[in-house]
Amino acid sequence: MGSARGVQIFLLLTLCLGLQAKVFTRCQLTRELLKINFSRTFLSNWVCLIEQESDRNTSALVVKTSRRKYYGLFQIGSEYCKEGKKGGKCDITCESLLDDDIKDDSVCANKVFELEGFKYWSKWEARCKGHTLPDIEKCPDWQHPPSRASPPRDKRTARGKRTVRRFSKRSLILNPLI
Ligand SMILES: *[C@@H]1O[C@H](CO)[C@@H](O)[C@H](O)[C@H]1NC(C)=O
Ligand SMILES: *[C@@H]1O[C@H](CO)[C@@H](O)[C@H](O)[C@H]1NC(C)=O
């Protein structure tokens, strides 16, 4: 396939995915990040990062060069994904970083954070680090965390597994003391 054709298809895909674009308000974003498993400790940093990088727009796309693009809410760079098929350091398609499902974006953003820290995001460094962070504690969901009673799809099992894992880690630490 010629690369021009590849670009055409990609643009078409992007256009289609554009229909699923979502722009969150600050409190909607806070709610969504709390519903996923973001820790409260760094949540205002994540919200600041997202506001600076993508304006809370799930379909934000910044094209620096044909090889250097930044995708979605977290503006994750091309080295973390692959166009058209799964790949990159997050083993996902870049297109999946542009839709309104931010669960996979979040998993990938956390991978970026693990590997490179917040400093990966130059706008976090320039406009969030050491600055006043968004006042998300005013958001209703900060005080009253969103209900997990009806999590979509497999969230419940994922959460259950995590609790078990955390618990067994703690047991491992406690066991030698017994
Ligand atoms: C949430 O949990 C998933 C799987 O348990 C993990 O891969 C992801 O990094 C976690 N995200 C956050 C924000 O902690
Ligand atoms: C969100 O980003 C897309 C892609 O860059 C753009 O077309 C759209 O206008 C943006 N939406 C808003 C409300 O800024």
Report helical residue fraction: 40-55%
How many β-strands, per DSSP?
3
What small molecules does the structure contain?
Answer: 2-acetamido-2-deoxy-beta-D-glucopyranose
CATH architecture: Orthogonal Bundle
What is the CATH topology? Lysozyme
Enzyme class: hydrolase
Protein name: Lysozyme
Signal peptide: 1-21
GO molecular function: lysozyme activity
Provide structural commentary.
A 3-stranded antiparallel sheet has the order 1-2-3. The chain has one domain: Lysozyme. The longest helix has 20 residues. The chain is built from 7 helices and 3 strands. By secondary structure, the chain is mostly helical. Helix 2 packs across helix 3. The C terminus is likely disordered. One 2-acetamido-2-deoxy-beta-D-glucopyranose binds next to loops.
In short:
This protein has 178 residues and is mainly alpha-helical. The protein is 46% helix and 6% strand. It has a single domain, classed as Orthogonal Bundle (Lysozyme).
Q: Notable features of this structure?
A:
single chain; 178 residues; mainly alpha; Lysozyme; three-stranded antiparallel β-sheet; 46% helix; globular; disordered C terminus; binds 2-acetamido-2-deoxy-beta-D-glucopyranose
